TrEMBL record, chain A:
<dbReference type="Pfam" id="PF00005">
    <property type="entry name" value="ABC_tran"/>
</dbReference>
<keyword id="KW-0067">ATP-binding</keyword>
<dbReference type="GO" id="GO:0005524">
    <property type="term" value="F:ATP binding"/>
</dbReference>
<protein>
    <submittedName>
        <fullName>ATPase component (TauB)</fullName>
    </submittedName>
</protein>
<dbReference type="InterPro" id="IPR003439">
    <property type="entry name" value="ABC_transporter-like_ATP-bd"/>
</dbReference>
<keyword id="KW-0813">Transport</keyword>
<comment type="similarity">
    <text>Belongs to the ABC transporter superfamily.</text>
</comment>
<dbReference type="GO" id="GO:0016887">
    <property type="term" value="F:ATP hydrolysis activity"/>
</dbReference>
<keyword id="KW-1278">Translocase</keyword>
Automatic annotation (TrEMBL), chain B:
<keyword id="KW-0812">Transmembrane</keyword>
<feature type="transmembrane region" description="Helical">
    <location>
        <begin position="217"/>
        <end position="236"/>
    </location>
</feature>
<keyword id="KW-0813">Transport</keyword>
<keyword id="KW-0472">Membrane</keyword>
<dbReference type="InterPro" id="IPR000515">
    <property type="entry name" value="MetI-like"/>
</dbReference>
<protein>
    <submittedName>
        <fullName>Permease component (TauC)</fullName>
    </submittedName>
</protein>
<feature type="domain" description="ABC transmembrane type-1">
    <location>
        <begin position="52"/>
        <end position="236"/>
    </location>
</feature>
<feature type="transmembrane region" description="Helical">
    <location>
        <begin position="64"/>
        <end position="87"/>
    </location>
</feature>
<keyword id="KW-1003">Cell membrane</keyword>
Length: 255, 253
């Protein structure tokens, strides 16, 4: 329990390989992944859909165990899920029988905590003030995903794991949410670990981009981004990195 | 074709069917002990009002008690099966075997064990009811979307809290379907029990009327019974849709 109170977590992924067994053969999804994530980084893993990135995230969250290799948080093997590492999925997975406020409060309820102010502050911060009593079925996709973010962040995780959280939103909502994610990350002092297949998104959010290639997924490139936020999509530096990433993924730079 | 609302279609249907029935009766000249005319059923109803309503009240009580105890048993079994693997593995076959026995065949046995009074009928209804409730609720409990369960895990929810906060609410729409089926078959359970051995109730009344060729009285009792079943089903349906609004119902009646 004390572990989850430790705010900073250093995640060490060492030599992780994993495969799924299909009917007649094994399908390798991850191959020899080595990655260390320092506290307060915002690491974005970029790669084509279905290349095993999500599996890696689930392992960091403690929802799955790797076949080979180890994943450690502050030197301790991750063997189970923990409130200090919370996942936000592509689908908001809200509970339809609970209001917005009750959804955000659920983590507290389960852990027998009560802090009305923390809930109100979080709702305010994420732009949901006044929607306390709305039900998920009354929300738009962007609003629902905001609730999912609030539900995760109110537990004050040290690592926020984002599995293509904006993947299903329309492009305009997406741009707004990207800005908000950056603001949240800067205000709340958590480590961000996100998976996306959107280069723009990676460039705007990440302090470090890890490029993966698929089947089995392995790391083919790494970019450190030390520009200030908010970033401009068409800044020279970003365009340069963007070209390099396209090249790495096998697209010509003049495309 | 214009579409008419339910409250408009039902009276039209009932009046139409009654007219058709009366018409057939007039033209084919069927003896009343085979098929009474709607008019004579109405007269039988009027003449035996007190007896009919009193019998219906008894059957209604048995049905409600059966429904409550059957639901209680159904909920308990489903919860135990979903929480304890041992119970699931050993109880499921027993429940399945119990359902392979025709309930009608059990009725005389129940009368022997529980007597001619109300309890044998309540048990009969309970036996018929618990299965759809257990089956639907258990299904719902085992089919919680994986994302919700994982969310519970990351919030450190113990199995009991997972059940309480996530799996039970998630299973309520399935439970409601089971309950609606239960409400529709509960009166059958009570009447079957009465049919075999009773001194009162609609089933008892129908059997007596049948033996005495009072077919009109029999039809009047039948009419009351189906009215009761429809009302019960309607009440349960309305209650479940009110209490579980997130189980979106897109059916059109």
């Amino acid at each position: 329990m004390v572990d989850s109170l430790v705010k900073q977590q250093k995640i060490e992924i060492t030599n992780v390989s994993h495969s799924y067994s299909l009917d007649d053969h094994d399908l390798p999804v991850l191959e020899e992944i080595d990655l260390t994530i320092e506290p307060n980084e915002f690491v974005v893993i970029l790669g084509p859909s279905g290349c095993g990135k999500s599996t890696l995230l689930r392992m960091v969250a403690g929802l799955e165990r790797p076949e080979q290799g180890s994943i450690k948080a502050n030197g301790e093997e991750i063997i189970a899920a923990d409130p200090s590492r919370i996942v936000v999925f592509q689908d908001p997975t809200l509970f339809p029988w609970l209001t917005v406020r009750q959804n955000v409060e659920l983590g507290f309820k389960i852990q027998k905590k009560k802090d009305d102010k923390a809930i109100s502050d979080m709702l305010e911060m994420i732009g949901l003030a006044g929607f306390d009593n709305a039900y998920p079925s009354q929300l738009s996709g962007g609003m629902a995903q905001r609730v999912a973010l609030a539900r995760a962040l109110v537990n004050d995780p040290s690592v926020l794991i984002l599995d293509e959280p904006l993947g299903k939103l329309d492009s305009l909502t997406r741009i707004t949410m990207q800005k908000e994610l950056v603001n949240l990350w800067r205000n709340k002092q958590f480590t961000g670990l996100m998976v996306t297949h959107d280069i723009e998104e990676a460039l705007l959010l990440a302090t470090r981009i890890i490029v993966m290639r698929q089947r089995p997924a392995h790391i083919i490139g790494e970019f450190k981004l030390d520009m200030d936020y908010p970033r401009h999509r068409d800044s020279e530096e970003l365009l340069k990195i963007r070209r390099e990433i396209f090249g790495l993924l096998g697209h010509k730079s003049d495309w | 074709m214009p579409s008419f609302p339910l409250y408009f279609r039902i009276p039209i249907l009932i009046i139409g069917l009654l007219l058709l029935w009366q018409g057939i009766h007039l033209f084919l000249n069927i003896p009343p002990y085979l098929l009474p005319s709607p008019y004579s059923v109405f007269i039988a109803f009027k003449d035996n009002q007190v007896l009919l309503w009193n019998s219906a009240l008894i059957t209604f009580n048995e049905t409600i008690l059966g429904l409550i105890s059957g639901c209680g048993l159904g909920i308990l079994l489903a919860l135990m099966m979903s929480l304890i693997p041992f119970v699931r593995q050993w109880l499921m076959p027993i429940i399945l075997i119990s359902q392979s026995i025709p309930t009608f065949a059990l009725a005389p046995l129940l009368v022997l064990w529980f007597g001619f009074g109300i309890s044998s009928k309540v048990v009969m209804a309970m036996i018929m009811i618990f299965f759809p409730v257990t089956s639907a609720f258990f299904d719902g409990l085992t089919r919680t979307p994986a994302g919700w369960i994982e969310l519970g895990k990351t919030m450190n929810a113990s199995p009991l809290r997972q059940l309480l906060y996530i799996r039970i609410p998630a299973a309520l729409p399935s439970f409601a379907s089971g309950l609606r089926i239960a409400a529709a078959i509960a009166p059958i359970g009570a009447v079957v029990g009465e049919w075999v051995g009773a001194s009162s109730g609609l089933g008892f009344l129908m059997q007596n009327a049948n033996n005495r060729f009072q077919t009109d009285l029999m039809f009047a009792a039948l009419f009351l019974l189906s009215l009761m079943t429809i009302c019960l089903w309607g009440a349960v349906t309305i209650a479940t849709t009110k209490l579980i609004p997130w189980a979106e119902d897109t059916r059109e009646f």
